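Lecture notes, unit on protein representations.

Consider one protein chain, 332 amino acids long.
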Amino acid sequence: MQSALLRLRPFRVMSAAAAALLAVSVAGCTGDPEPPETPAPDVRIAAVGDMNPEENLDPDSPAGRNAAAITELVENNEIDAFLGLGDFQYDTAYCEDYVDYWAPLWGGTMPKLYWVSAPNHDWEPGRNEDLDNFMDGQCPGFTEKAAINQERGYISNGEPYSKDFGNWHFAFLSSAHWEYNSKRARELTRWLDKDLAAAKAAGKHLAVVHHEPYFTSNTESHDRASDHRPWINVMWKHGVRLTLSGSQHNYERSCPVNNADRCVRDGMTAFQVSTGGIDLRPFTSKPRYIEERFSDTHGFLRLTLRHDGSFDWNFVATTGDGTDSGTRSASE
């Protein structure tokens, strides 16, 4: 009996510090789990390019109707951003043209406006170089600034920038560089590579905006912007989900497409929306990657982008009967 008692281990009293540590550990194991992270809100976007004809002030024109509809969305806070896809004012726009013609119809979109410059109508070095001044409120007679200028200050024509909307990352590039300064365009390819890589590493879904489309049907005036191929290769490399362009004076949507023009599950959905108000052009070719198109309807595109990478689209017709709507899931 005595030997058995001697083999018993002595009872030790737990210190107050150890007891407190044990209590915290137990609470951490048995307490309520941390609430899940709230997903980023949906992002609501309107987009269109090729907007206002020369000296147009008619509110019942296609441009006037589009401007009024998008302005109403801005005023009612029904969109988070209006993406201006280039060619704001025809034919060759200077400060007075933006102030006298574009601003009376489209000026109400400025509080939500994110813009890119296009060659010729928006910006040609040594000729019409006023779009950047107008967007920064520096043209006499109109001092309101576009949304991106309110956030970033002055942005020169052709200067790239990027912007996060919810869980989506948008890069904005000027197609004009491929026409006026190919060296600078190639430099922007490197900028785009780094910008998209960083955004992808941060878990963002990717989109790119530029005026001249790569995935497009031909018209009598324009073929595809084949010189943009380096940008397209970078977009494919990083898994860009959608692109937005203008220029063709009609509407098109591609399948999810890769940089070899093939429809693939994880490709880019390319929207070409140049139905802002300029006379429309018929198509002269039909690429296999184009899923929907029309050239008889003015209007604009609405997008709802979700945190998981899925999105809805709806073309809002303001004159004509063309329509296009649908959803791309996060797994496609």
